[in-house]
Specification:
46% of the residues lie in helices and 8% in strands. The strands form two sheets. Strands 1-7-8-4-3-2 form a six-stranded parallel sheet, with helices on both faces. A two-stranded antiparallel ribbon has the order 5-6.
Length: 392
């Protein structure tokens, strides 16, 4: 898909045959440019579940590894569905679903090494799963009981970032530090197509290129920045933006877990070899709402979603597993039971989360304390105490 400007173009005046020839030549050149700009989509598993080869990327996985990827996607989707239900029941204040983006997250997440460092947005639940973060810990922030329920350094997985695009700068700075330390680990930063329009992302691209930082920018292009389609954000495919900053970009089928694994692994290895950043655009689709406060029926057609449902990442891998005899019915039955057990565990964990100490918001504001914060603490304590007095 080539994205073109939607702005109307005024026809140029021409006279005589020479003007006609010039106009024809321009049209031919424009058509040639359009054809050459067609994005190359890296794909190893078709929507029909058929294995295909690619000249630049390949992956050789055992049946056990294939089943592992399938299990990752199924359990991640189950957890995501449970979180959405919990929000609808009033147990969470908000939730950002990853429905439809499981392959992009599991494929890229499983491409990382233990010593790599990950900078997510607020939707990378599948990547968190790959990094060993307990799914229940992801929900504390959305329930309002903490600012992030895990130690980033325990899993080399940073806390969720709500500010759009800022994590790309954090990742670039961290990667520059990794390079100065002489380590052979890599950094990966996740962001969406909407965040690609942020100045922070452009700045991260500039610094990472100039300093040859070992970072992979993984853009999940799910077609919609809340209610804005991609064609309202860019005139060229997103992965081609990397060319202007001096490093390679590649577009991968974001619903193909095998391709996402192969492409991300290659980009991370490139970073470790000291060859600098790579932009990976995972071309996928957000099957649900932007968050649970969004209503996608207001801005996109049902036919669009139905077309992408036929490209479901989990269904295509299951089709491949069954065709290859790599998984039997017992495997799928056991996985269904495991999925339900995960949903139950997460549900119980959320409902048993203790309320936070309200006075804790004043802690660790300044390293050496502050008279103003002390005054605000006292005022808030008095305000809270007033409720107890009214109840008497």
């Amino acid at each position: 898909m080539t994205v073109e400007s939607t702005a109307p173009r005024k026809p140029r005046r021409t006279s005589g045959s020479s003007g006609t020839k010039r106009a024809t030549a321009k049209k031919t050149a424009a058509k040639t440019a359009e054809t050459s700009a067609q994005p190359e989509l890296v794909q190893l598993l078709t929507p029909e579940g058929q294995r295909v080869e690619h000249p630049d990327y390949s992956i050789d996985l055992t049946p056990d590894e294939l089943r592992g990827l399938y299990r990752d996607m199924v359990l991640t989707r189950r957890f995501d569905a449970e979180a959405t239900s919990l929000q609808r029941q009033g147990e969470l204040g908000l939730w950002a679903s990853l429905l439809g983006q499981e392959a992009a997250q599991i494929g890229s997440g499983r491409a990382t090494r233990e010593d790599d460092y990950v900078f997510p947005t607020y939707r990378e639940h599948g990547v968190a799963w790959c990094r060993g973060v307990d799914p229940a810990n992801l929900l504390g922030m959305f329930r309002g009981v903490n600012h992030g329920g895990w130690d980033p350094n325990s899993n080399n997985f940073h806390l969720y970032t709500i500010v759009i695009g800022s994590q790309t700068l954090h990742a670039t700075g961290y990667a520059m530090g990794v390079a100065k330390d002489g380590a052979d680990s890599a950094v990966i930063a996740y962001f969406g197509d909407g965040a690609s329009s942020q100045g922070d992302v452009a700045e991260a691209f500039t610094f990472s290129a100039v300093y040859n930082a070992p970072v992979v920018f993984f853009c999940q292009n799910n077609q919609w920045a809340i209610s804005e389609p991609t064609e309202r954000q860019t005139r060229v495919p997103l992965y081609q933006r990397a060319q202007g900053f001096g490093f390679p970009g590649v577009r991968v089928d974001g619903n193909d877990v095998l391709a996402c694994l192969a492409v991300t692994k290659d980009a991370l290895e490139r970073a470790r070899r000291g060859e600098g950043p790579t932009l990976v655009e995972a071309f996928t689709y957000r099957m649900g709402a932007h968050t649970t406060s969004d209503d996608p029926t207001k801005y996109r057609a049902d036919e669009e979603r139905e077309a992408w449902e036929a490209k479901d990442p989990i269904l295509r891998l299951r089709t491949y597993l069954e065709a290859e005899g790599a998984a039997d019915e017992a495997f799928f039955t056991d996985l269904d039971a495991e999925s339900e057990a995960l949903g139950k565990r997460v549900r119980e964990a959320v409902r048993s989360m203790p309320d936070p100490d309200l006075m804790a918001i004043f802690e660790n504001v300044y390293a050496d304390g502050s008279a103003l914060v002390d005054e605000e603490r006292a005022q808030f304590a008095a305000y809270q105490a007033s409720f107890a007095e009214e109840a008497k």
